[in-house]
Specification:
It contains 14 helices and eleven strands. By secondary structure, the protein is of the alpha/beta class. β7, α6 and β8 form a beta-alpha-beta unit. α2 packs across α8 and α7 packs across α8.
């Protein structure tokens, strides 16, 4: 843990401290805050019908009403394509795709080369699939991560979940279950990555990590490997938001109130200062902050079915003996990354996620919750790249050998 933290801090000299103040408040606030935080906070939502899409500076987006669309934008030498794919679940899902240029070279960036050492060199690089979290959609990955990883030789995909501005639900639900999101994700994986291809590495951020866990727990032990690896960035932990809520209330009641305002009252998508407080660091330029906040507003109307989520918590499906996810043996490589300045997912939540995924000690980076955005996004990108380059991408063989070994033990 110490060496990992030291390496992360050496990546940037622009680290900024983010501190919150603790205030004394009336005990009468505890009950309504607990009630709000455990029912409606951390929702994944979509825009109002009257919202107007804003043209991204990096990607020209097509009309959200389009059912069969394809647009492209060039970022340096990387072409990002926007497609709308109709899934077997009936969802017209927006997908952003970035393919690598013809000539690729990739090396592990320092100082992470000291942490993740490559076992073999291979040109057969796995595709990467990025999953967004609450109040976001695929755009958050197109800003930096899709170009960064496609230049380094990976086919990159970012999807927009059901109910967001670019993937409107055909049923027009007011809230969507996590099981529905997992079904959409599985349908996309099945339609995009045939069994004969190298399975993707899937990266889930915030609530995207919870959806990824739900997908994995539904995997049958006898099924072919679904993923080459799973990475969780500032993920909602297996026990959900409830235990974190209690910790926030004890440590910093003022921060807990800001979270309620940000997510329950949706002010994080309306007020620049609160958006910065919850998602970003003070170094994010005001113009970018405003543009990002406007995108959050478009993707923050349709919610997660929280009552259903409480019944479907990943921790409820853990292995009874180990307390870990039952799926860990089917995913050969697992990574958990947290952010030191995260106001939404605390240190205990990150450590819980790492233990559940049997991923070893989590990596904490000097970033805010939205690790993929802001001036210091390369820290997270380079940490992920170092991990990917640090293992042999032969997941099907590794899982097969592991399953054979488990069979012999029985």
């Amino acid at each position: 843990m110490t060496s990992t933290m030291t390496a992360a801090r050496d990546v940037t000299k622009r680290r900024r401290g983010c501190h919150t103040s603790s205030r004394s408040h009336s005990i009468t606030l505890l009950f309504p805050l607990c009630l709000l935080m455990t029912t409606d906070a951390f929702q994944l939502r979509s825009p109002s019908p009257n919202s107007t899409p804003r043209r991204s500076q990096l990607l020209s987006m097509s009309s959200p009403s389009s059912t069969n669309s394809r647009t492209t934008a060039t970022i340096s030498s990387v072409i990002i394509t926007q497609e709308t794919v109709t899934l077997s679940t009936g969802l017209p899902m927006e997908v952003l795709i970035a393919k690598p240029p013809s000539s690729i070279s990739s090396t592990i960036p320092p100082p992470f080369s000291a942490i993740f050492q490559p076992k073999t060199k291979s040109n057969n690089k796995p595709p990467l699939l990025f999953l967004h979290g609450s109040f976001h959609s695929s755009w958050c990955w197109s800003e930096h991560f899709l170009p960064f990883f496609s230049i380094r030789g990976h086919d990159c995909y970012a999807i927009s979940f059901r109910g967001t501005s670019r993937s409107p639900s055909p049923s027009q639900e007011s809230c969507i279950t996590i099981t529905t999101h997992a079904a959409d994700l599985r349908a996309f994986l099945k339609s995009t990555f045939p069994p004969s291809s190298l399975p993707p590495i899937v990266i889930g951020h915030s609530f995207g990590g919870a959806i990824l866990m739900k997908l994995l727990e539904q995997q049958q032990p006898s099924s072919p490997p679904l993923l080459s690896g799973a990475a969780f960035f500032c993920s909602v932990p297996p026990s959900g938001n409830g235990p974190m809520t209690g910790r926030f209330l004890k440590r910093d009641l003022l921060l807990a109130l800001k979270i309620v305002l940000g997510f329950v009252a949706k002010k994080a998508a309306r007020w620049d200062w609160l958006c910065r407080e919850l998602f970003f660091t003070p170094t994010l330029p005001p113009a970018l902050l405003r543009r990002y906040r406007e995108r959050l507003a478009q993707d923050s109307v349709v919610g997660i079915d929280v009552k259903d989520f409480l019944k479907e918590l990943p921790s409820l499906k853990a292995d009874e003996k180990t307390g870990k996810g039952r799926w860990v043996g089917q995913v050969p490589h697992r990574l958990v990354i947290g952010a030191e300045f995260d106001k939404l997912v605390d240190k205990e939540g990150v450590e819980e996620m790492a233990a559940f995924a049997d991923a070893g000690a989590p990596v904490f980076l000097p970033l805010a919750h939205d690790v993929m955005l802001g001036p210091d996004w390369p820290i997270a990108a380079e940490a992920l790249l170092a991990w990917i380059e640090g293992f042999d991408c032969s997941p099907a063989k590794e899982v097969s050998q592991r399953q054979e070994g488990e069979g012999r033990k029985k």
